[in-house]
Design goal:
Layout (H helix, E strand, L loop, with lengths): L2 E7 L6 H8 L5 E7 L5 H7 L3 E5 L5 H14 L4 E4 L11 H9 L5 E5 L10 H18 L11 E4 H10 L7 H10 L4 E5 L12 H20 L3 H10 L5 H4 L1
Parallel strand pairs: 1-2, 1-4, 2-3, 5-7
Antiparallel strand pairs: 4-6, 5-6
């Protein structure tokens, strides 16, 4: 299977070269989506070997990811890894995320910063991760410890659905998880290494309030009619459940 790494980036000239070069050791291609950077992120990523797409202005992290997803699908990749450009995610964990999909056990693999290990993290962020993970685990009846992690592996059928169904431009991580579950995707977690950055680009309170907003909207969508979702699943994605259950 062909593997692409999609990296959204905003003003990450200090770290993007190292991330791209390391990721290329574990994937067939790296796609960097420069989301309106004002520094040399795009130039340096291209020099490091990435296929670079530039947004003329900042459109939001998940807008950048959808751009990367479309490009990866257009180029025929079977699996897409998503990771940050700031060095928090270790590319040497990529094979661990790929394993469940390659072995046919999962459609979405989430890299967990909390599963099976202790991690140094700002207390409010740790509490937020635990809160959202517990809430979604209870709702979806799936044991998850880190639903806000952006270090993930997606199979191509799921990417096609996310591109069509997702609406959130910035805080889409929970929406993507809920849509995957609603589509019947098999979700698995794998422990990953994590290096927290010294300063966060995300506003502390605003970040979590926006996650709550996205979560509530996604849950309300689940409670409403799912006819469009079924059309995506059975008509466009062409992945009937029976093929998974047989």
């Amino acid at each position: 299977m062909h593997v692409s790494v999609v990296i959204p980036a905003l003003n990450e000239e200090k770290t993007v070269v190292d991330v791209v070069r390391k990721a290329l050791s574990f994937a067939d291609e790296v796609i960097v989506v420069d989301d309106g950077s004002t520094d040399r992120t795009a130039e340096l990523a291209r020099q490091a070997g990435a296929h670079v797409i530039r947004h003329p202005r900042n459109a939001g992290q998940w807008s950048a990811l959808r751009t990367g997803f479309r490009e990866a699908l257009r180029r025929g990749f079977d699996i897409v890894i998503t990771m940050d450009a700031d060095g928090q995610h270790d590319p040497t964990d990529i094979p661990r995320l790929l394993e469940p999909i390659l072995e046919g056990r999962a459609d979405l693999v989430i890299g967990s910063r909390l599963r099976g290990r202790s991690v140094t993290m700002i207390p409010y962020r740790y509490a937020g991760i635990k809160f959202f993970s517990k809430l979604l685990s209870t709702f979806m009846r799936v044991s998850l410890t880190d639903v806000t992690s952006g270090f993930r592996a997606y199979c191509s059928w799921l990417l096609k659905a996310l591109v069509k169904l997702m609406r959130e431009r910035q805080y889409g991580i929970l929406e993507a998880t809920i849509i995957a579950w609603r589509l019947g995707a098999r979700i698995e977690e794998k422990p990953i290494k994590f290096v927290p950055r010294r300063t966060s680009k995300k506003g502390n309170i605003r970040f979590f309030l926006n996650l709550v907003r996205v979560l509530l909207r996604a849950l309300m969508a689940h409670l409403r009619s799912s006819s469009r979702l079924k059309a995506i699943t059975y008509g466009l994605v062409f992945r009937p459940r029976s093929s998974q259950e047989g």
